[in-house]
Design a protein that fits this description.
endopeptidase fold (from Nostoc punctiforme), six-stranded antiparallel beta sheet, signal, 10 helices, 6 strands, disordered N terminus, single chain, alpha+beta
Amino acid sequence: TMKNPVPQAASLLLEKLLLLVHVRPLPASSGAEPAAAAPGYYDTSCFKRGDLLEVPRTLFIHFGIYLGENRVAHLMPDILPVLTGDRRQIEQVVTNKRLILGVMARTASIRVDTVEDFAYGGSVLVNHMDRLFQDQVLGSEEAARRAEKLVGATAYSLLWNNCEHFVTYCRYGAPLSSFTLIFSLFIFLFQFCETLKMIIRDQRSVLASVLVGLASIVCLGLAPSTTLPTIFVPFFLWMAG
């Protein structure tokens, strides 16, 4: 039998809608390409190797794993690893064009940048997500090593493989994302509504509800709590069908 294409279509549609909200060009001061904060703008003495760094933006949050010595591993959409193998070009700060084309091509790279290039002037929260995963926090060295092993080109998907999936895998052992949880809830509600409509449209459910109602009257006796559902539930199912 052919699989229902609607959930897959809903997945693609939802991902595109979320991309419009989640992916925005990096902040730029003059209008061309983004300019990072000056070196030394952030006090890295309070960061420890393996820390999860979180940079809240207006419409999204960017995540990374601190590796020590002013280095942060983070996942960013990037088209350049598909076009060239020149590491010197790839290691340059990701521009807005590279980021947007990476989103469109569903390609990304897990790269290592300075804290300044990673945060782009935004405020940095440290291990803010630990409160949600109190019993799952891995050792700091384990988190850093996981991040280092994953550095390089990777696929990109806002729902299935984004910067949040990367850091939660490194620090908590499982790739999780709030966007994926929202999507899963959306699909569950969609499928529940579809199933409910099928049940309502199936006239056999009217007969089944009548039989269940009569059985309840026989077992529990004639009372408003058994008689009224026996009458009204089949009636409304019949009307809806």
